[in-house]
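Good day; I would like, with your permission, to put a structural problem before you. A protein sequence and the structure tokens that stand for its backbone fold form the material at issue. Thank you for your consideration; the sequence and its tokens are set out here:
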Amino acid sequence: MKHNHLSLNTIGGIIALGLEEKEDGLILSRLTRLESEKLVKSMCDTLNSSEVNINLLKNDDVLIKEIDGSFIVLVNVPKADRLQRSIYLNENIMNSYKRSNKGDYKCTLLEIQAMLRNKEIKSLDSYIANNFLLKQRH
């Protein structure tokens, strides 16, 4: 389930399960309806366990679709807002990941600290700077 939680810390997105990537493109893995339903159940069990600190998926975010007699699972992964980040694994905030381009990377300590700092109800950007004067440049 690492891939689901990765997208949560970055931009969100759609995950398609039941496809295989080959040199010439994507092909159907030939999942049956029962296999796709078991895949959804396993994903939901994981997301609602202590393996992930928060589950942002709703029932509407998961869809089983039939294509040419094979089934795929489409998962709309929402982006976690700043108050929900960091999403992490196994009750350890150091197990926070992010998606960058096509790769999955463990967040650095600085990235985790930035997410926690931005988690404040009133972020640093929302404070009014008293006695601050902007001078016009000529």
